[in-house]
Amino acid sequence: LLGFWKTIPLATHWIIMALALFARRLPYFLRMAHAAYLQLDISLEEASEVSGAGKIRTFFNISLPLLLKGVLVGVVMFFIMAFQEISTAIFLYRGGWETLPIGIYLNWHRGMEFGIAAAMAFLMIVITFILLLIISRISGGVLKAAWGPGGT
Prior knowledge:
Blueprint: H1 2-7, H2 15-38, H3 42-50, H4 55-83, H5 87-91, H6 100-110, H7 114-138, H8 142-147
């Protein structure tokens, strides 16, 4: 079985890690996209079709713009979760494929380079925070609305 695994060219390629991260986090993206779809008002689509627009035109002019925010938030959340994934990365780790969580792990546990590991962890926190700000902007400032007019 191991000999068969070594003959598959994808098994030793970096794309396998991207595919594994994609497969592990796809359900979360689909959940967010489905939630955006459930909020879609079907009467808008019906009104468009009654007005003479076809199904394709209705999808691109009515449905897609309404679904776009939910899908974009799903994509960014998908990226954040895949970015911080360590279990899949450790399972598929191979020299030269260091993701940020793997780099933190290797510097912390093997190399005892705590300063480098802390800097990498800080970088991960900053990138995650920036992505969360992007989500807030895409979603129309939901965080600002939740905090109220005083911003506290």
